[in-house]
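From the pipeline queue, job 12 of 40. The input is one protein chain; the requested action is below.

Action: predict structure.
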Amino acid sequence: MAISDTAIIHGSAVIEPGASIGDGCRIGPYCIVGREVTLGKGVDLKSHVVVEGWTDIGDDTVIFPFASIGHVPQDLKFSGERTKLEIGARNRIREYATMNPGTKGGGGLTRIGDDGLFMIGIHVGHDCIIGNNVIMANNASLGGHCEISDNVVIGALAGIHQFCRIGRGAMIGGLAAVVADVVPYGTVIGPRATLEGLNLIGLKRRKSNKQDIQGLRAAFKELFFGGGALREKAAQMRGGADGNALVEEMLDFILSDSGRSFSTPSED
């Protein structure tokens, strides 16, 4: 066991032998920290937090009461193999959140980036890969093997089907059921999510170049409206993006390997 002398640990907390507790950590009443857990500097477990399994939590992450972090995956194929959950720095994980480690069949790792906000009751399933600055609002859920890129916002009560990819800067509306990949900067809404346009507000907030946004809007219109197959149109457009990084990112996303279809605009 490696517990920093500067850590503040409530007398009712249980720290199992083997756990590593970094400088300046605060572990509140009735928390449980398992034997394979590593807490970075300044991690704050408010109270009644349980962290188990092979779990690493990055510096200055704050976890609120009754969160369950690192318990065995909700996968009937899981047979007790040693798999990992990695959580980056400066995340805020709110009450009743659940985050599961990976499985042998999915690569053995669930990874969460830095500076995320994971609100009350969210669920991150096994083998998910989540980028930086991701927001999951109350009770949003990720099925296993999802890939969530940087700067994604997932609205309250939204559900992301297993193996789906959500591209960088996309926004998922509350209550949406996402069963297909979502392109970078897309906005999807509805009980069976359809692509409703681009996340222009998010692009402007991140101070994207106005000409690049206009180019992305033109590319979006060409890709998703009119005749022709999406991947064929993306292949034809490749090389003609005139250095527009937003367009190139969208084309690369569409042309990369995926086992799922794409969210597209409704036909109404």
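Job complete. The first helix runs from residue 200 to 205.
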